[in-house]
Amino acid sequence: MKTLIYIEEYEIYQEFDGRQSIFLNGNPCKEENAKVAVISKNINFSVITPENGRQVKKSRFNKYLNGYYKNESYFAAGGNGTKFGIYHALTKNIKKYYSLCAVDFVIPYDYLVILFLNKKMKVEDGTSLLFIEAAADRQSEAGSIYKAMAISNGFNIFPVISFKEDMFNENLNFLQTKLNSKGIKIGKIFTNKGNEKLSILFPEAEVVKFDTKEFFDFFGSIENSTPHFENPDVKFKKLDARKNRLRNMYIAALILFIAVMQLWIIFLNNNIRNEKKRINFLNNNIANLSQKIGKDKEKLAFNKHFSSFHIVNYLKWLISVFPKDAKIKNIILTKSKNHYMLYGHGFIEGGYKKFVGDYNLLMLNGNEPQPHLNHAPAVKILHISYDLDKFDKPSFNFYESLK
Fold this sequence. Notes:
By secondary structure, the protein is α+β, with helices and mostly antiparallel strands. The protein contains 9 helices and 18 strands. It has helices at about 60-70, 90-100, 110-120, 170-180, 195-200, 210-220, 230-305, 310-320, 350-365; strands spanning about 1-5, 10-15, 20-25, 35-40, 45-50, 70-80, 85-90, 105-110, 130-135, 145-150, 155, 160-165, 190, 205-210, 325-335, 340-350, 385-390, 395-400. Strands 9, 10, 11, 12, 13 and 14 form a 6-stranded mixed beta sheet that branches. It has a 5-stranded mixed beta sheet with strand order 3-2-1-4-8. Strands 15-16-18-17 form a 4-stranded antiparallel beta sheet, with helices on one face. The chain is rod-shaped. It starts with a strand and ends with a strand. Mean pLDDT is about 80; it is low at about 365-380.
């Protein structure tokens, strides 16, 4: 995989050809994937310092970034819990860098330098330093193109400046002036191309030489897990896939919830149905019990008003009412609402003449109170009807309402 440095100001690529670092125009990928370090004024760097220097949890910090830089591409680079470095740029610019060639990886050049110094050059904490890297420009007679940056406490102080060799003094003087205005004293200078003017401008700084191959080898060894600008198209696809997955999970959860609710409703309906059956069964039992109690009450009321003693006395009275020759075939006692009905049938053996002779006696006895019925219940008048059969044998029917 190729490793390229893209300088947007000059719209040229820098690569290492195995012997030296050189610049190329056009598309240098040649259908080969590449990692690209970008030097651009469109990439911004900010240092975030939480209030009162308090430690900030990663989740809270990510929530802050998602809210503050939601309209940009960004990533966090370095930090000790009280300070955080953030690289951010418009998403359209990051898309442009990924479209330069077959790009798999985009990282700011200054962050690449900081990683290189921290992992390879073993820079002491708190040391302020300069990093100056040069490459030959085959397309220009001006010689090399320099890239310079200042680093303090693990963060770049100013944006990377790039310049031709003939502007070396002016740019280094400008950089020194900015450092002096901030009271920053350079302790070390790392460079891949020595220049006697460095010792003149920064006499107290130690100059450390590094090899260009070592720098590009380190660049090629960086894992994709290293913080970098993600490809927006790929990121959006991942976000869409995640949204779809979350949507599908939500729909599945909703379907499961609805299914559980339906099962719960079925369970409740079954319980209600079973409870209704139990209530109906109980109501039927209550109705049956009420009916039985009603019958028992009727029986008790009947027994109360028509005890066996009263019935015997009443039947004695009834038999005494009829003539001596009268024969009673049957007597029926039934309940009707709040009273009882007495029905009976009989005949007179003495014949018609005997019947005529006893008729007045029968009616008299039926309408006058009898002394031996003092304990009998109050009764209405006994109703009697008479008839003659085909042998002129008189028969009679009687009924009476008893209360």
